[in-house]
Amino acid sequence: MAKLDTRLYFITDSTFCDEEEFFARVTAALRGGATLIQLREKERSSREYLTLAERLHTITQSFGVPLIIDDRVDIALASGAEGVHLGQSDLPIDRARQICGSRMIIGATAKTVPQALEAYKNGADYLGVGAIYPTTTKVKTVLTSVDTLADICRAVPIPVNAIGGLNKDNIDILSGVPIAGICAVSAIMKADDPEKAARELFTAAAEKLGIGQAV
Amino acid sequence: MAKLDTRLYFITDSTFCDEEEFFARVTAALRGGATLIQLREKERSSREYLTLAERLHTITQSFGVPLIIDDRVDIALASGAEGVHLGQSDLPIDRARQICGSRMIIGATAKTVPQALEAYKNGADYLGVGAIYPTTTKVKTVLTSVDTLADICRAVPIPVNAIGGLNKDNIDILSGVPIAGICAVSAIMKADDPEKAARELFTAAAEKLGIGQAV
């Protein structure tokens, strides 16, 4: 399995810019210190998703950062990506593990302690937990309290990341919670300067939450 | 690889009825002689698609008929289905073959001789060619002429099925074309009596086009 470092987990969004800008922004985020990248596509055909994944994978490989594919185990396998992220409406983790083998990183989404325990039991390698704040990325999402996030961190021995509307100015709320890292979408993707935004978020997570060191 | 018999290839549509009626209709089609079943879902989550595929697979297995999953190699692998069907916007056939192995049936869609040759070269086990008639299932589809269908049949050594708006009363147009079978969606799915509709289509294909024998 590829080395898993979830300190600054950048989840992409290709819906608001053209393809060249998309790749430029993800590259900038990697320069700024993103330690893990997720490609998340909801509207594209399988072939478009694969094409995007392959091109992104050449970029992430050049930074030595694993690429995680949202939802689609087949796209992860075909693109050579290092992992797949499975939400509650995606393939069950144990079923995905059967078809992708032990080397694939499998991440899962959990909103409650029972969901987190279930995901861990079924073989998840990390968890994304939230939304901590309301987010424009997933408008219908249910919020998860910081207390529940803390309970999940204590309940499972795998890395737990906080997700949902997080940015450098509002992560103080997570102080004292033993998360492994921060997930970010808009805070980096839509920033005027994605490299700077990634670096500042990484630094803020380090200084305010004690998560790793700026690179 | 599961035995491939494309004589009456029934492609399902679950969008216009509830789940119980859906399974009842597919079961009826199998009783009526469908030799191959494709599950085609465009709007469902991965988990819903898998759940539907698994339940359908127990039914198709009881008839000894292979189940083909549209588009999603991961759903095919996870459900234990015998095959996957790949359109021009789905995963490339050779990439799919790499991740699903030699035992999986891979079908492809082709509208032209070059597409058919490419699909065959990349490892397709059968082809669906059309649309022969306009269809309500794929409103934006491009029609394929009967002459092109005949050219494709002669160009590749794998089974070629005609698809698109076909029913027992309009398949005469395919007379003399060496197709291996007929694909049907609405003609069976939306029939008052799907079992009777399947049986009549099978019989018409046998009598008018010389395709196999009624079962």
Structure description:
Two copies of one chain form a homodimer. Chain A is an alpha/beta fold. Chain A has a single domain (8-209), classed as Alpha-Beta Barrel (TIM Barrel). Chain A is built from eight helices and eight strands. Chain A has helices spanning 19-31, 46-63, 73-79, 93-100, 113-121, 146-155, 186-189, 194-209, and strands at 8-11, 36-39, 67-70, 83-86, 105-110, 126-130, 160-163, 181-184. The first copy, chain A, has an eight-stranded parallel β-barrel with strand order 1-2-3-4-5-6-7-8, surrounded by seven helices. In chain A, strand 1 (8-11), helix 1 and strand 2 (36-39) form a beta-alpha-beta unit. In chain A, helix 1 (19-31) runs parallel beside helix 2 (46-63), helix 1 packs parallel to helix 8 (194-209) and helix 2 crosses helix 3. The two termini of chain A are 23 Å apart. The interface between A and B is medium-sized, with 21 and 21 residues.
Keyword list:
TIM Barrel; alpha/beta; homodimer; 8 strands
